[in-house]
C-alpha cells in the first residue's frame, strides 16, 4: 500500500478506494495490505503470496475449523494458507493430548513448540512453491496412520468435480489423507468455490463439510447442501 501511495502521490484512503473499485470489477484481487492480479486455478502460487489473499476470510475460516477439534484427537492438517490459519487457531485453544499430522513446513513451525501437541511430520519430496512434502514416501507413511479428522485446503471445489489442486502429487497425497481420516472438512474461501483445478483429489461425497466465507453465492451453497455437505459460512 505504501508503494502505491508514493508512486501515484495519492492518499492511502484514495489508494484503498481505487483498489476496491478494481477488485469489484474483477481486474484484481485485494490482498492483505494491497492487491495482486487474479489467480489462475490451474497454476500454483508461492505460499507467501497466497497468504496475503483473502486474509480476513481465512482467519474466520480457521477460527470456525479449530472449534471442531477436541483434546485427545488425531488430526491431519493439509498444506495451505487457510489450513495455516486452522493451525494458528488450534494453538490458541490450548488443547490437551492432541496429535497433528502434517506435510507442511509452515504448519509444523506453528505447532512445534506446543508441549501438549504430538507432531508427526510427513516426509517425502519438498515442493518449494508450497513448502510441503509429497510423493510415494509421504503416501506410504500416511497409509500406516489413522486420523479422526482431516482439514483439507483446495484450489478449487466444484459440485461435480469435487476438490481439486494444481499439483498431481499433491492431489494423490490429499486423496490418501481422505482415505485414512474418519471425517474430512474442506476449508476454502469463496473464491475457490465453483472452480476446477488440474488434478482431482476425490469425489464430492468423500468430504463431509465445507467451511467458507459469506461471499459464496446462495445457489452454490444450496447445491453443496443438496449433495449432503454440511456447510459452515463465516
Q: Can you put this structure into words, describing what you see?
A:
- The structure is a single chain.
- With 234 residues, the chain is α/β, with parallel strands linked by helices.
- It has two domains: 2-37, no CATH class; 47-233, Rossmann fold (3-Layer(aba) Sandwich).
- The chain is built from nine helices and 14 strands.
- Strand 13, helix 9 and strand 14 form a beta-alpha-beta unit.
- The model is unreliable at 24-32 (pLDDT under 50).
Fill in the keyword field for this structure.
Rossmann fold, seven-stranded parallel beta sheet, 14 strands, 234 residues, 23% strand, globular
The fold-level CATH name of the largest domain is Rossmann fold
Helical residues, percent: 25-40%
Largest sheet: 7 strands, parallel
Distance between the termini: 27 Å
Radius of gyration (CA) equals: 18 Å
* Number of helical elements: 9
Instruction: Please indicate the count of domains.
Output: 2
CATH architecture of the largest domain: 3-Layer(aba) Sandwich
Strands of the widest sheet, in order across it, are: 5-4-3-8-11-13-14
Please describe the topology of this protein:
Blueprint: H1 2-8, H2 12-24, E1 28-31, E2 34-37, H3 47-50, H4 55-66, E3 74-77, H5 81-93, E4 98-102, H6 105-111, E5 117-121, E6 125-127, E7 132-134, H7 136-143, E8 149-153, E9 156-158, E10 162-165, H8 168-179, E11 184-187, E12 199-200, E13 209-212, H9 218-226, E14 230-233
Parallel strand pairs: 3-4, 3-8, 4-5, 8-11, 11-13, 13-14
Antiparallel strand pairs: 1-2, 6-7, 9-10, 10-12
